[in-house]
Amino acid sequence: RFEEAIDKCFSILDEYGEKFPRIVTPDIIEEEIVAADSMLTNFPKGELRYIPKLTGDMRHSLMKTMTYTVIIAMSVKREYLPLVGCRIASRSASYGWCSYGAFGLYAFGCALINFSNKIDEGCSWVKKSLALMKLLEDRENIPEPIQATCEEFIKINKDTMMEGQVEFAMSASIHLGRRQLVCGMNLVTINDQCTSSINEMAKFKQMWAIMYVVSQQCCVLKLMGKEPGTVFDIFHGKINNEQEFFDKGVSTGDEVIISCIYFSNLFVAYWLQNYDAAIQAAEQYTDSNGAKLYDLYYVLYRGLTALQLARRESNDKLKWIRIGESAVSKFQTWESHSNWNFENKHLLLSAELSSVKGDFSAAEEKYKASILSAQKHRFPHEEGLAMELLGSFYKNQGDLESSRNVLLKARACYTKWGATAVVERLCTSP
What is this structure's pTM? Predict the structure, then answer.
């Protein structure tokens, strides 16, 4: 059904006169980026209030169809993201702007970051797109926090379902689950959302979408300290356990489903301190240099895992430190463009790196700064993690009283998160 939806979109776009190649290469993507860049030379550099608005029902329908194509492509056909997104931006520059055009401008900025490696220029266009969304949709604000995008995907799911666009609604549900997980939303709430999404997907026979959400729900249940066995009942005996689920994911050849499974394995293994399993999952994960949301968090948990391994494996210590340094460097760049979303993560990676290198004064300062940043920006799970790592740091320094105090606070954060398995692991740690 997913392939059918993509084909249907391209058939409609053909009727509008918008032709897209069915085989996409890096050169084709770069050509589309260059073309969009050229079309956007006259985009206002300051006030957007007088930007020309899109007129005409046919043109509006064209922009809407291209945007829906991008939403579907987010799940599997990622090579179409920059291609169609840049086309939306190009046509908007000619026809006028609407909220779909602002979405295309956002995709153009992401393409500059991910494919042309023009991070500062790309982030500048992303910020312009958010300002344009605010103007065109008459919103009070388009907030920076990743938590706010959860509400956006809930709205997309509701709106597209009402329009009968089932595949688009299912894609929105998938992206909602991903954001809820990395935001540190209460795991019980996420589990309920996953169950609701799976039931809705089953109702409309969207088995491709169920694979994604089952992967997320297995991750959530493990962190809650529960076995994910009943999750597989949705497959009616065709898949009965995690190994069969993994084998099915691999058999699809779907790179994004496989990456989701590996990321879930990395995420759970790190939080349960199974660092060997975590690094194994990280090495199998396919990184798209930020093209997927999970790519950013792959860098985070791979970096944190590597710095744990650097403490115990003296022979490979330099190798693990280099991975940690790379993660710190990437989050330093991302923080410069989104302080809310990435400051606490950059500080935590930096604290771990300083600790491994023996700069204990800097490490303590950065752990504390990471805790404050996570509190301010509402990432309770990462607040707890920074506290736990600070508690381990104090213990290694011989300050047992400070260690006990901060670990009690970490446990409270994990309890708020709903991560019973993490709480139990913390309570049984020596």
Answer: 0.79
